[in-house]
Design a protein that fits this description.
Layout (H helix, E strand, L loop, with lengths): L13 H11 L4 E4 L7 H15 L5 E5 L6 H7 L4 E4 L4 H11 L12
Parallel strand pairs: 1-2, 2-3
Helix pairs in contact: 1-2
């Protein structure tokens, strides 16, 4: 199994996701598109605005139940960098996390 050395925070809705983004300052965000109160696209828009103001880029990876033909453009238009379809494959998630790992921190995985 792959044990990732990462700090995880879970948000139950888009509003929480935006709040957590500000307080937790993550290196990557996995965004569920269909969330209550504020959906993932809207939450991503707000997060991308904050990133623009801060002059930084943090990847936001959409997670969605199905590869939605025309919705793909919508999702990428919302500022999402990538998207993964459910059922989520651990290796693909790990790959996104590894790609987002900043140069100055301990890598999230060990080959041991």
């Amino acid at each position: 199994g792959m044990n990732l050395d990462i700090d995880l925070q879970f948000a139950t809705n888009g509003i929480e996701a935006v709040d957590l983004y500000q307080s937790f300052d993550p290196d990557i965000v996995f965004m569920d598109i269909s969330m209550p109160e504020m959906d993932g696209k809207e939450a991503t828009g707000k997060i991308k605005e904050m990133q623009a103001q801060a002059g930084k880029h943090v990847p936001v990876v959409a997670m969605t139940a199905h590869a939605m033909g025309g919705d793909k453009e919508d999702i990428l238009a919302a500022g999402l960098d990538e998207f993964l379809t459910k059922p989520l494959k651990k290796a693909l998630i790990a790959q996104q996390i590894m790609q987002a790992c900043p140069d100055n921190v301990r890598p999230p995985h060990s080959d041991a």
